[in-house]
Amino acid sequence: MQTPFPFETIAPKEFFYGRKKEMKELKEHVENSTNVLLFSKRRMGKSTLIKNLFTEIEKDYTVIYIDIYNIITAEDFGKLLLNGITKSQEGNIKSIIVKLSKFFKKTKIEPTFDPHTSEFGIRVVENRLSFEELMEDSFSALFKLASEKNVVLAIDEFQQIADIKDVKIDAILRKYMQEPSSISYIFLGSKRNILNSLFAYKSPLYAMATPMSLKPLNLDDIYNYSKQYLDISKEVIEYVYNLSAKETKLIQMILHRVYINKKSVKKIDINFINKILDTILISKNDHYKTIFEFFSINQKKAFKLLAKHERELFSEKILREENISRPSMQSSLNQLFAKEFIDKEDGEYFIPDRAFELWAKRNLK
Fold first, then answer.
1. Contact criterion met (CB below 8 Å) for 349 and 338
2. What does the pLDDT profile of the chain (365 residues) look like in tens digits?
3. Is domain 286-363 in CATH 3.40.50, yes or no?
4. How many CB atoms lie within 10 A of CB 261?
């Protein structure tokens, strides 16, 4: 049964809702080949928004999406970009290979065959190419593709380039982005402070993209969509909204479980929502417990205090609860932040995974 509330996969067009304003704004940028820096907290639907944008414009544009969350080296970035360009091409495999072989200077393209699905495909062979060579081939292809049809290149989790210290990826990108072309670059990210530093004054990417903040879904949009599939009141939807701290993924997760269990209750009320949340947190218990057990003693103390209090973490009263010193608290928060178990915005730390936060509030007393 296909759920109208997908939360683990990208929502298809028929189940995508609440982002008309953002879609309109992005289309205007794309039409003018301008660049966008799209940021929000995690699990708010940035990737889903871009994938649905691509679905709507792919007939008129060459659309390329890469997710660089797991890059370790600059070469990883270059390889992902090459593969993204290759996957963006549709049609006869032989024709694509011939076309891309003319575009790339050093990268080779070869056909593949999947014996399980009996489907043919293509892959790039970029062994032993340096980062500079990978980028040269990528942008050689991009510029040639853009001469045929406007290109939109989306780079997800863009803040990860800041972890690459030996190569200034942002400086290399600026060099190519300054070339006149019909390419719109969309940079997606979730760590506002890192993104701000990448696009700050005197940074290579300064003034190279228009900032666009993705806000939480509108409550009315969620209600109007949900009542198509559920006999649910706006009061209950608002409860889900606030319970989820407006996080799109958890809202969808709760509503999905309501949808598949709706026949088991006479009325969808707040008590039912609480039972649904209990089920979700129980299903995640082993996962979250394992994560927490890997924390050091002081990290556990800091995480517990953050989950419980959220603010004024350095007051003597709060520090005494876990018998942790101010320097140890700061050090532990910094370590958890570096490992992305917590995040920081406007000087305040928070747990970016709302379900993990709710689990901690219940289990780390």
1. no
2. 678 999 888 888 899 999 999 999 999 999 998 999 999 888 899 999 999 999 999 999 999 999 999 999 999 999 999 989 988 888 778 888 888 888 888 888 777 666 776 666 667 776 788 899 899 999 999 999 999 999 999 999 999 999 999 899 999 999 999 988 899 999 999 888 888 899 998 999 999 999 999 999 999 999 999 999 999 999 999 999 999 999 999 999 999 999 999 999 999 999 999 999 999 999 999 999 999 999 999 999 999 999 999 889 999 999 999 999 999 999 999 999 988 899 988 888 999 999 999 999 999 97
3. no
4. 14
Q: Helical H runs in the chain?
A: 20-31, 46-57, 74-87, 93-103, 131-148, 169-177, 192-198, 219-226, 234-243, 248-261, 270-283, 285-293, 297-309, 316-322, 326-338, 354-363
Q: Which of 148, 162, 188 is nearest to 49 (CA)?
A: 188
For the chain, the structural domain boundaries read 19-213, 219-283, 286-363
**pTM given for the model:** 0.89
**24, 199 in Cβ contact below 8 A?**
no
Name the superfamily (CATH) of residues 19-213. P-loop containing nucleotide triphosphate hydrolases (3.40.50.300)
1 SS3 class: coil
